[in-house]
Amino acid sequence: MSKNEQFVRFDKVDKSYDGKVLVVKDLNLDIAEGEFITMLGPSGSGKTTCLMMLAGFETPTNGEIFLETNPISNIPPHKRGIGMVFQNYALFPHMTVYENLAFPLKVRKIPKDEIDKKIDKALAMVSLSEFGQRMPAQLSGGQQQRVAVARALVFDPKVVLMDEPLGALDKNLRESMQYEIKHIHESIGVTVVYVTHDQGEALTMSNRIAVFNDGKVQQLSSPDKLYEEPVNSFVAEFIGENNTFVGEVKDIDKGQCKVKLENGTEILANPIRVKTKGEKTIVSLRPERAIIDPKENMQNQHKGKIEEVIYHGDHTRVRVNILGNSQFILKVPNSSARMDIKLGNEINIGWDSHDCRALDPK
Ligand code: ADP
Ligand code: MG
Question: Three-class SS of residue 287?
Fold first, then answer.
């Protein structure tokens, strides 16, 4: 059986809380069975609202949500077969780990011997087999979130929703939990809809990412495509680091365009989201793609003055003033220790036109 590409389907969904402002605007999103999809965006961009509508705690103002081709508006939350892990959706403090996991099974009237089997399996999945009789207060923050993940999975839901589930954990624990959740997803293949404002987390975990801004999906792509081919400057700014120049398209041909910057210099760029001569554009270049002392045949070569040098262990961040941009960042690997990276020095910087993307200035 081939997998269902429209396992979950948001169809022309709008949401307004006050009857005036739409906080979700015309959302059309198909989620494939078994996919790990992430809604990524700044605070207030409508991510949680989308999850709440899918879970059944909020109703769309317009449009419909489908699960396995069935409209779900009239199905109450507990009958949708959806598991949830939220940052603040705590465990029941007065129940043991075992009882916390038994709860969603009892609600669904699963027989006792099956309950035990399912709980054993779910606890093994999050490496907490020995912890069934502990109270939540006797667990670390990371262990509690793993129990929350187990509780969301224990009744074999069709879809699991996770809203910033790692937000309260410190950096190291958050990163190891990202891999843990990713591996659980890979081993059981449940459909996951994940929400985060952390782009690194989204890139690490997801099959596809929907980037939200102001209630609208700006781009829906695989992590690499989002990083390499952002559709507009919002996405480029939000995913990873960027150096930007503002300019106007002077010439455009297949795969290449000439952009005149505000300071009058012309550079060669990759026309990702510009089509015609005369268009305004924001040109975006990742810090790691700019090179010091480039080979002669590299297309874009300009002099910049070093204004700041910060040591970062594996690399050095160098801020230069170049082509009228005093916030231009270079990342120089520290294996190639260099004598000329000193405050005030002038250096030659180059980049390939392919890595320098001319975007829609939205
Ligand atoms: P995100 O999860 O991306 O931070 P939310 O979906 O929580 O965004 O919020 C989107 C917008 O809707 C925000 O402007 C927020 O203030 C508003 N909002 C969220 N929940 C409610 C609510 N229950 N009542 C009124 N406004 C809300
Ligand atoms: Mg939220």
Answer: helix
Please state, in angstroms and as integers, the Cα–Cα distance from residue 75 to each residue in 152, 197, 200, following that order.
Answer: 19, 29, 35
The pocket around ligand 1, CB under 6 angstroms, is made up of: 17, 23, 41, 43-49
Q: How far apart are CA 256 and CA 164, in angstroms?
A: 40
The dihedrals phi and psi of 235, each to the nearest 5 degrees, come to -65, -45
pLDDT, position 229? 87
pLDDT tens per residue, range 262-300: 999 999 999 988 889 999 999 999 999 999 999 999 989
Give 197-248 pLDDT, tens digit per residue: 999 999 999 999 999 999 999 999 999 999 988 888 899 889 988 999 999 9
Rounded CA separation 321/324 (Å): 7
Taking residue 7's Cβ as centre, other Cβ atoms within 10 Å add up to: 19
> How far is 291 from 294, CA to CA, in rounded Å?
6
Domain boundaries, the chain: 8-233, 241-359
Residues with CB under 5 A from ligand 2 (ion): 48
Band (pLDDT 50/70/90 cuts) for residue 333 is confident
The DSSP letter of residue 191 is E
Domain 8-233, CATH 2.40.50.140 — does that match? no
Classify domain 241-359 by CATH number. 2.40.50.140
How close is the Cα of 47 to the center of ligand 2, in Å? Answer: 6
